[in-house]
Design goal:
The chain is α+β, with helices and mostly antiparallel strands. The protein contains two helices and four strands. The protein has two domains: 47 residues, no CATH class; 34 residues. The termini are far apart. The structure holds zinc ion (2 copies).
Length: 92
């Protein structure tokens, strides 16, 4: 696992960040800044798992464009309407 990333003694440049989804402390982790918080992930699938909103109606994970109504997320206008959110139109 150590891949030669150890710096000279005393350096603090290297920061091991642990993926908050799977706990992997793989050195190539990256940060996502969202809504004032910083999230650390080792891969995009973990980031999607953590960050993707869930449709309030069908509970599917919304990857890409969703629809927001009253602070809740839906995968599409049909689900928003099914929850009684009138006037929601899919953004194409
Ligand atoms: Zn991960
Ligand atoms: Zn849905």
């Amino acid at each position: 696992m150590p891949c030669g990333a150890r710096g000279p003694r005393g350096t603090t440049l290297w920061r091991m960040a642990r993926c908050e989804v799977c706990g992997n402390d793989y050195g190539m982790s990256f940060e996502v800044h969202a809504q004032g918080a910083v999230h650390v992930f080792d891969c995009f699938s973990c980031a999607i798992h953590r960050m993707a909103p869930i449709c309030e109606h069908c509970r599917v994970q919304i990857i890409g464009q969703g629809v927001e109504a009253d602070g809740k997320w839906y995968c599409g206008a049909h689900c928003a309407r099914a929850e009684g959110k009138a006037g929601i139109v899919d953004r194409v």
